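Project outcomes to date are best conveyed with an example. Our students and postdoctoral researchers have been running inverse folding experiments weekly, and each run begins with a structure described purely in tokens. The record below, which covers 348 residues, was selected by the lab manager from last quarter's runs and is presented without edits.
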């Protein structure tokens, strides 16, 4: 007959919850007590059951990660970074992929996470009031990535400042006719997400600060994909006057834009300079100047914040962590053809 956790607790003279924590190496049990409990469990032949531990302590040892689309490179990098931190803490990762608008609705209207996770990490979703309340009713620590919040902890980059840095680089090279390929924020899963809107705002702010009027024809949008970048660049090439440089809202879209320029017989950066956003694994291969937003580092920071939140008293103001970005210079940007290379300004 298999020994029960109550027998181990009785022999050790401790509570059942203490046995559960000791056998799972959860903090809060002294080393001596933990070893004594493990010795007794081995002596009586007790094998810890995850379900029994969950019932005894209410702790699942699992963190839920909610992602719009797990196939996207960006989310894969975030999950990799967050997963490494969570596994190192002895916790499992439970991945929820929303997939589409209907999947998002079912997730937030249902009781998917109840009793299945100790905390929740939500990636790149701008939560509605109803969705925020749905998460609050779980009574679990929640951290958002890519979106600030007055309710939950958050980890993000300053997308507006990063976009200004990208456009400032082009301005410093001497470009004055700068186009934008932006991420369409009407995606059915991540509708109204902050990064696309903030990058658009940063682009516009930089031009206006330089005394350059905005031109509707120079702003084109598409899905955050190679094909989305292709379509947007094709439309840009139909503008009454071509831009000499383009700021692209993501590297994947920039890859598509570069392909269209190559097919059109244009040379980058001689004919048009291109700068992306992300520092995708392939951006070095494509020799793409870009903004590195430390995506894996964002995942790591979000997981660390979530672990901290697990041990933080309720009512504490939610922390908001800003991850630094940096400009990565490669050979897809250069001064316009009518400006000598020697006149290039220093980066600021």
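After processing, the design step wrote out the following sequence:
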């Amino acid at each position: 007959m298999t020994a029960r956790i109550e027998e181990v607790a009785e022999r050790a003279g401790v509570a059942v919850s203490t046995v559960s924590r000791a056998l799972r190496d959860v903090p809060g049990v002294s080393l001596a007590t933990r070893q004594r409990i493990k010795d007794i469990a081995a002596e009586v032949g007790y094998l810890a059951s995850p379900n029994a531990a969950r019932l005894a302590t209410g702790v699942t040892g699992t963190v839920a990660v909610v992602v719009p689309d797990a196939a996207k490179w960006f989310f894969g990098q975030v999950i990799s970074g967050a997963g490494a931190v969570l596994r190192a803490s002895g916790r499992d990762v439970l991945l929820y992929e929303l997939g589409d608008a209907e999947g998002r609705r079912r997730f937030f209207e249902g009781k998917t996470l109840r009793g299945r996770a100790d905390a929740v990490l939500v990636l790149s979703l701008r939560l509605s009031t109803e969705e925020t309340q749905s998460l609050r009713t779980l009574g679990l620590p929640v951290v958002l990535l890519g979106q600030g919040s007055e309710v939950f902890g958050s980890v993000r980059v300053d997308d507006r400042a990063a976009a200004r840095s990208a456009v400032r680089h082009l301005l410093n090279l001497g470009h004055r006719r700068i186009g934008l390929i932006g991420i369409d924020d009407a995606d059915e899963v991540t509708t109204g997400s902050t990064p696309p809107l903030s990058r658009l705002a940063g682009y516009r702010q930089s031009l206006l600060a330089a005394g350059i009027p905005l031109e509707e024809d120079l702003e084109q949008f598409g899905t955050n994909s190679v094909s989305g970048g292709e379509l947007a660049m094709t439309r840009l090439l139909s503008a009454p006057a071509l831009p000499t440089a383009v700021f692209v809202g993501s590297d994947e879209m920039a890859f598509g834009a570069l392909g269209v320029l190559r097919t059109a017989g244009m040379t980058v950066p001689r004919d048009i300079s291109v700068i992306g956003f992300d520092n995708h694994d392939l951006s070095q291969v494509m020799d793409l100047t870009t903004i590195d937003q430390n995506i894996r580092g964002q995942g790591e920071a979000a997981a660390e914040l979530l672990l901290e939140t697990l041990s933080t008293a309720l009512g504490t103001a939610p922390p908001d962590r800003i991850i630094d970005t940096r400009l990565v210079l490669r050979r897809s940007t250069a001064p316009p053809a009518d400006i000598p290379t020697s006149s290039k300004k220093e980066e600021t």
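The radius of gyration is 25 Å. Confidence is low (pLDDT under 50) at residues 341-348. The training component of this project remains on track.
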